[in-house]
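Re: the 209-residue chain
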Amino acid sequence: MDSFIFGKLIDQPRWELEKALIGHVNSVLDLGCGSHSDIRYFKKKLKRTVGVDLFSPSLNIGRENLLHHEYYKIDILSAAKYFGENSFDCVVALDVIEHLEKTDGLCLLDQMETIARKKVIIFTPNGFLEQKPFDGNEWQRHLSGWEIDEMRQMGFDIIGINGWKALRGQRARITIRPKSFWKRMSYLSELYVTKNPQFAFQILCVKNL
């Protein structure tokens, strides 16, 4: 029923990412791809997608499920050295940069711009969101927060994602009861926060090079 009523609002990150990529780029490098990258939904519409992660269990799950065309186990902060300059149309880091210290995050952004020919895309919480490790993966801990103003100053366009910020907490879970009601309110609030990202729980940051 919810999927019929709310449609694409239920999976907004996927659809906004697809809109930013499909028809604009042919190759995508997914840094910190994890085990369930949203790239999987439209991989067939791209000529080449490459997943990179340092956590073997996640990398193996992604590889077994053929989420990307290719996989590499390397440190994302060494990506530019490994892949080289202008080697992909687009480089994405989805739910990744907040797991790095600020200086490392800025280094990652520089590397992404070195590798990408056309676009760099970041998906991250709107500001700092505390999160502890889970699933035995220490890299799931959040170490930094990224603000809308600083991303805009670096040349990114910002799209608000996953509804009103106050409704969600760690791992984007609804924190207010009854959760089924507030989840639906979160979906509806996406209609507003998409273009008013200061109120959004997460932000999709797109930079055209």
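The first helix runs from residue 2 to 6.
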